[in-house]
TrEMBL record:
The keyword Oxidoreductase applies. This is Cytochrome-c peroxidase. Pfam families: CCP_MauG. Residues 80-217, 236-367 form the Cytochrome c domain. It comes from the Bacteria. Heme c 2 binds at C251, C254, H255. Binds 2 heme groups. PANTHER family: BLL6722 PROTEIN (PTHR30600:SF10), CYTOCHROME C PEROXIDASE-RELATED (PTHR30600). Its cofactor is heme. Residues 49-77 are annotated as: Disordered. The keyword RNA-binding does not apply. InterPro entries: Cyt_c-like_dom, Cyt_c-like_dom_sf, Cytochrome_c_Peroxidase/MauG, Di-haem_cyt_c_peroxidsae, MauG/Cytc_peroxidase. Binds 2 heme groups per subunit.
Length: 367
């Protein structure tokens, strides 16, 4: 760990450790950091953030039912709506050929992803992006990797009608559900009596949002214990990784706040411009050149279970991902022109040592 001394040499430790040379020994490095990061995040040193960049300090995950969209939060407090939504989430009837359910791609034991490079729909049709995790969805204004959904209701209905996903027009799905006496009763109990049929597209979307978007939360980890003030919750390597995450590795520029995401869109240099796997991200939806190559920042909560990583599932390991960040995701496109994606200025070479990468990796596995 001696190579990590440079990470710590500039740290201003608490009074009881200022006379000690941080980095002289492993124990002293850890002791210095534990003094820096004692108590709760509001009392920690500010992270390394680019000038003018807004950010939020880390904090506990908001409780179930919290959402940026008030109607969704209200529905999440109705246990009958939540129960109905959970049933729908796992029901393959929602897909046209009854081959897949929402849970086929958003698997709870895989951080609500599916472990595949690309999402796989009915008849084995593959999309060009991987299944995004859902943990940050309740708190975002623009959803999917490209932000094309403006509401949670749009987010849950989109895959149902997408021809390479569930491939089921709502005009066909609603009559199918209406044929079920169980579903008719469940919708009526959840939403109340209706002058027409109790099942419609709006109620379907509201139930799915309430049950498996607004109420799902990442599993609590030792990271949560640490930010609650338990300084013994992380071992020395994990603690050094936390410090690197907040400083030299520059991760906090995008992965901040309680869900470890700014819910923003950034170009990290993975558009594959002019190649077979080209994906121009948000631009493909907005047609705004300012959006070329932009993808939504995912939450890093429970990230170790969410592989393969990135919007295209390019990285089968977090170690490989960190090493690419270390070299600023490789060279920029050689082409010039107004429609060539340009990497965010936040993506810079980091010059991390192997020990530092391993410390970051250890920290990511705790999240």
């Amino acid at each position: 760990m001696a190579a990590l001394a440079t990470v710590l040499s500039g740290a201003a430790c608490a009074a009881e450790t200022t006379e000690q040379a941080c980095g002289a020994k492993d124990m002293l490095e850890a002791r210095c950091l534990r003094a820096l990061y004692k108590n709760v995040p509001a009392q920690w040193p500010a992270p390394t953030i680019d000038p003018g960049q807004p950010w939020q300090e880390w904090g506990p995950v908001p409780g179930p039912g919290s959402s940026a969209q008030p109607e969704a939060a209200e529905d999440a407090r109705n246990t009958q709506i939540v129960s109905l939504g959970a049933r729908l989430f796992f029901d393959k009837q929602l897909s046209r050929k009854k081959q897949i359910s929402c849970a086929s791609c958003h698997q709870p034991d895989k951080s609500f992803t599916d472990g595949k490079v690309s999402a796989v729909g009915e008849d084995g049709l593959m999309g060009k992006r991987r299944t995004p995790p859902l943990f940050a969805a309740p708190f975002a204004q623009d959803l999917f990797w490209d932000g094309r959904a403006r509401t949670l209701q749009e987010q849950v209905v989109g895959p149902i009608e997408n021809p390479v996903e569930m491939n089921h027009a709502l005009s066909d799905l609603i009559p199918r559900l209406q044929e079920s006496e169980d579903y008719r009763q469940a919708f009526q109990q959840a939403f109340g009596a209706s002058s027409s049929n109790p099942i419609d597209a709006e109620r379907l979307a509201r139930a799915l949002v309430a049950a498996y978007v607004v109420t799902i939360r990442p599993a609590a980890t030792r990271f949560d214990d640490f930010i609650a003030g338990d300084t013994a919750a992380l071992n020395d390597q994990e603690l050094i990784g936390l410090h690197l995450f907040r400083t030299k590795a520059r991760c906090m520029n995008c992965h901040n706040g309680p869900m470890l995401t700014d819910n923003g869109f950034h170009n990290i240099g993975l558009s594959f411009y002019g190649r077979r796997l080209q994906d121009l991200g948000r631009f493909e939806w907005t047609r705004n050149p300012a959006d070329l190559g932009l993808f939504r920042t995912p939450s890093l909560r429970n990230v170790a279970k969410a592989g393969p990583w990135m919007h295209n599932g390019l990285f089968p390991s977090l170690d490989g991902l960190l090493r690419m960040y270390d070299v600023a995701m490789g060279p920029a496109p050689k082409e010039t022109g107004p429609l060539v994606p340009r990497k965010s200025e936040r993506i810079r070479e980091l010059h991390l040592s192997d020990e530092e990468i391993q410390a970051l990796l250890a920290f990511l596995r705790v999240l």
